[in-house]
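User: I'm new to structure prediction. If I give you an amino acid sequence, what do you actually give back? Let's try with this one:
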Amino acid sequence: MYLRDEAIVLQNVVWREHDAHVTLFGREHGKMLAIARGARRWQAKHRGHIDALNQIEVMLASGTTHETMAVARSLRARPQLRSLLSVVSVAGQAADRVSRLTEPHAAEPLVFDVLQELLNVCQAQTQEWTAERSRCMLAACTLKLLDALGYAPELEQCHRCHLSMNEDVGFAERPFALVCRACADRTMQTAPSFSLRLIRFLRRRSLTDCLAVTVEIPALRFACDFIESCYREHVPLKDLQERIPCSLLCS
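Assistant: Good question. You get back a string of structure tokens that encode the predicted 3D arrangement of the chain. For your 251 residues, that looks like this:
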């Protein structure tokens, strides 16, 4: 049986001498693991099409443990994305998080749309991002991924008393949830001004709008730390200890 889908290449890792182990995320079939036979040979038909972060049209032959790549045709290569180190770093980390948060063959079209939106925003950039801008964009993308998968935190009501929260919130460490001032204790970190408003903004607005946001550094750090904590809560510890494959950044 063959699977045909539009997919984004999450990873492309060397396997054996001339083959490649490719992780894809398809619009209709979700995460797919495939072996591209002979893909690292100079005359390979897949060469150049299955680089990490490419958007491709793919046809896979189903197998017992993995799929074998039959056809791959590049739809969007996004060369500008790879010319800026800070931008491709964010895109690579986002692709890695999609791979860690999803299971094979679980259709998640909203996740595909979030990753595609980020890659389109990255492709449009003409200059490097600052460290704060990079962290903000990764946090915004991560929050949208969590939201699409049903893992997003509660941002409207206090985790303890379930009343509506204003800007004056605390930060509960376990579980990773926001609590109001009345429920917070001395061990919790107090959120800087506009932190909750920023987290809500990153969740609701497009990534293009998130790129243009301007906020004070303490509020940005709190928001990013909170989103990172939520992400780590849903990823196994052994996965977090693994390094991001170099193919994500230098394909």
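You can read the tokens as a compact description of the fold. Here is one thing that stands out. Confidence is low (pLDDT under 50) at residues 243-251.
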